[in-house]
Amino acid sequence: MTTTTKPATPVAASHGRRPGGGALALRQGRLEITQFLRSRESVVFTMGFPIIMILIFASIFHGTIGGGVRFTQYFITGMIATGLMTVSFQNLGIWIPIERDRGVLKRYRGTPMPKWVWFAGKVIMVVAIGIAETALLLAVAVALFDLDLPGTAGKWFTFGWVSVLGVTACTLCGIAISSLARTARSGSAVVTPVALVLQFISGVFFVFTDLPTWMQQVAALFPLKWMCQGLRAVFLPESFGAQEPGGSFELGRVALVLALWCVIGLVLCLTTFRWTTKRDG
């Protein structure tokens, strides 16, 4: 467990001026990143889990899955997606209830700092850790498993927008689901099972089309499946798209579903987020 840092209040800058909103957001982002890095459990799980899973699965499964695609190449796309979901959805869904239960959010609400700055700090933390985690994952995959990186600017662009939309949707959903946890201890119990189920049915650990049809249909309702599919379009050959359920990578539908989940997540955040526990009123 980390020691919760007392929320910072705006401090007068030079010449008696208060820092602007952007400066406050960056300051809050640095605070969030520092608190994350001080939690060894969070760092090891968030940064190490995808790498550990790659090492395990690469040791178990060998060969190709069709179309000249190695299983490790396919599996790595899912682990990038689940890594981004972990740092956003799972991390926020677990830690926000802890901050709420300890009264940290209540104290933030009582400071002159605009409320949006706190949310901006969380977003900055998610983006920074997500970039670092993805870079580390790609480096390990290239070094140990000969991962073929995207060879065109178009694929890197696709990698960028899929990651941005996916992280945005997962971040908003993580903030929203944090309101379901009544206590600090229940945050993990609420979020972790949801994350694990989504990973198993979304083509992270197994080839998506090998899953039962009903499971594929359920997974299609949630963003992780579409993140994985979008990333497969980046790291797998174009010809592999014919093996997807829709007969192609369906990047237009990927963008539409992820954007829709961004809207859904935002609505849920605005309507359900709580700064205090029920016992605080």
UniProtKB/TrEMBL annotation:
The record's subcellular locations are: Cell membrane; Membrane
The record, for InterPro entries, names: ABC2_TM, ABC2_TM_bact-type, ABC_2_transport, Nod_factor_ABC_transporter
What is the protein's given name?
Answer: Transport permease protein
Which residue ranges have biased composition labelled Low complexity? 1-13
Task: Establish whether keyword Transmembrane is in the entry.
Answer: yes
> What is the protein's species of origin?
Micromonospora lupini str. Lupac 08
Query: Any transmembrane segments, and where?
Result: 43-62, 74-96, 116-144, 156-177, 189-208, 254-273
Q: Could you give a GO molecular-function term held by this entry?
A: ABC-type transporter activity
PROSITE patterns found in the cross-reference section: ABC_TM2 (PS51012)
Q: List the GO cellular component terms.
A: ATP-binding cassette (ABC) transporter complex
Q: Where is this region: Disordered?
A: 1-21
The alphabetical list of record keywords is: Antibiotic resistance, Cell membrane, Membrane, Transmembrane, Transmembrane helix, Transport
Please report the record's description of how this protein sits within the membrane. Multi-pass membrane protein
Lineage, opening ranks: Bacteria, Bacillati, Actinomycetota, Actinomycetes, Micromonosporales
Instruction: Tell me which Gene Ontology terms the entry assigns under biological process.
Output: response to antibiotic
- ABC transmembrane type-2 domain location is 41-276
| UniProt xrefs under PANTHER family | NODULATION PROTEIN J
Instruction: Give the family per the record.
Output: Belongs to the ABC-2 integral membrane protein family.
| Superkingdom per UniProt | Bacteria
